[in-house]
Amino acid sequence: MPRLNFQMAALFLALALMMGGCVGTGNERAAGGPLGIEGSGTAASGAQRGQSFQGTELDNPASPLSKRVIYFEFDSNIVQPEYLPILQAHGEYLATHPEYKVTIEGHTDERGSREYNLALGERRAEAAQRILLLNGAAKEQLSTVSYGEEKPVDPGHDEAAWAKNRRAVLVYYQ
Q1: Which tens digits make up the pLDDT trace of 117-171?
Q2: What is the rounded CA–CA span in Å between residue 134 and residue 116?
Q3: Where are the domains of the chain?
Q4: Which CATH architecture has domain 64-174?
């Protein structure tokens, strides 16, 4: 019987170690690229805050800073109220972290002409940019680009897919 208890304890330890190694946000990228913010001095230690999260403020899933996509209604560039706290948090963060820059990518669904969608994507990116500026980000930290319908998240041809594709994305870099 003692051998069985040792095997169970070893199995438990192995599972605990594997679970601990799986912590991540899905947003990790190589240092130096977009979202490559390792070593930036912004690490939030779980021991300091009484949480189990360790990483940067931008990747803390409990923070609005981990959210970098806002969605729009059909044929609209109006930022919905539910996304204002996210943009406010990013604007304030950029104000206190001048080393970061953000490209705001505007996207649309496939409906409409290519030219119309490029213009709508640009208006969406600019709408998000205005809110970031109002919340402290510097103009020099921000740039916009429109991809129109060219980079869909969901290639489907129904309302569920289109809703995912009508978006603005914040891409951080240094």
Answers
A1: 999 999 999 999 999 999 999 999 999 999 999 999 999 999 999 999 999 999 9
A2: 27
A3: 64-174
A4: 2-Layer Sandwich (3.30)
